[in-house]
Description:
- The chain is mainly alpha-helical.
- The protein has one domain (about 5-85).
- It is built from 4 helices and 2 strands, in the order αααββα.
- The chain has a two-stranded antiparallel ribbon with strand order 1-2.
- The relative contact order is 0.05.
Amino acid sequence: MSIFSIEYGGPHSATLVCLIDAFGFAASATFAFIGGRLADSAGGWSSFMNMLILISAVGIISVWAFMHAEYKAAKQVVTLIMPSVDRSVHTAGGIPSLDANYCHKEDTSP
């Protein structure tokens, strides 16, 4: 199990690990048949390399889209949880440190 599976899957992390493994095995088996046939075809290794480039591009775009959606969702959750937090960070000796005002805002009016 990976940290990603435990964090993202929560109580269903075992199911997530099984799904990741199943889809990974299916993709690997499919690639072995299609890649082998493509490498032995008339186009040869250039067609095989083009297929690798296409698969890599789709993978990069998929991971970027997922991470971008996660970033936006996390940013929205932080805004919903702490909308009126003073987000100022004070430094002591060049090292950022948090003070009590960072965690919560107290009403000091008379």
